[in-house]
């Protein structure tokens, strides 16, 4: 697939997902978010991880703030992204919910006065945002490339996607630098992307 064709397909899929997310009512989004986050807490990979990177969800995304608060209350070490320049971000520790302040683009981020940077290699699990995901771990990001640059540095972390069920699609166009996720969890489905890739290799 050429880069130009990949970009066209990404744009179309991203637009489709935006329409579907906006079609959800607030009540639906709250209910589904609670379902997904509840299911996530039952996952062994999350239960066993002590240093976890989440993200500050936007209104149209799955609401991760209750999950964030629960993990903090359990004594987990929580990191959130902090944008340092175009296309680049770092993981910074969130010690309390009240330490969130507006960052770049108005995205809540840990207040640097009460936070420290966490080296990517110390992360055990990263909850990865995205517009769409495929069963083989394909991920369509939001267009900035931040996670595609960051995740290879977090070489010890499990990449975990929490998504609305409609965001799990058969195919996601992938460029050469795009990274995959290890698991996708929705309100109805759980996919181990490594197992899917392994099965496809065995069938080749």
Give me a quick take on this structure:
This protein has 204 residues and is α/β, with parallel strands linked by helices. Helices cover 32% and strands 22% of the residues. The chain contains 6 helices and 12 strands.
Give the topology.
Elements: H1 3-23, H2 26-41, H3 44-47, E1 51-53, H4 65-73, E2 77-85, E3 88-94, E4 100-102, E5 108-110, E6 117-118, E7 125-127, E8 132-133, E9 139-140, H5 146-150, E10 158-162, E11 183-185, E12 190-192, H6 193-203
Parallel strand pairs: 1-2, 1-7, 7-10, 10-11
Antiparallel strand pairs: 2-3, 3-6, 4-5, 8-9, 11-12
Structure description:
The protein has 204 residues and is α/β, with parallel strands linked by helices. The protein has one domain: NagB/RpiA/CoA transferase-like (Rossmann fold, 3-Layer(aba) Sandwich). The protein has helices spanning 3-23, 26-41, 44-47, 65-73, 146-150, 193-203; strands at residues 51-53, 77-85, 88-94, 100-102, 108-110, 117-118, 125-127, 132-133, 139-140, 158-162, 183-185, 190-192. An eight-stranded mixed beta sheet has the order 6-3-2-1-7-10-11-12. Strands 4-5 form a two-stranded antiparallel ribbon. A hairpin with a 5-residue loop joins strand 8 and strand 9 (139-140). The chain is globular and about 45 Å long. The two termini are 20 Å apart. The mean pLDDT is 92.
Name of the CATH architecture: 3-Layer(aba) Sandwich
What name is given to the CATH topology?
A: Rossmann fold
Cα-to-Cα separation, first versus last residue: 20 Å
Structural class computed from helices and strand pairing: alpha/beta
User: So, the CATH homologous superfamily?
Assistant: NagB/RpiA/CoA transferase-like
Biggest sheet: strands side by side, in what order?
6-3-2-1-7-10-11-12
Which blocks of ≥5 consecutive residues have pLDDT under 50? none
Question: What's the CATH first level?
Answer: Alpha Beta
Task: Give the beta-strand count.
Answer: 12
**Beta-strand percentage?**
15-25%
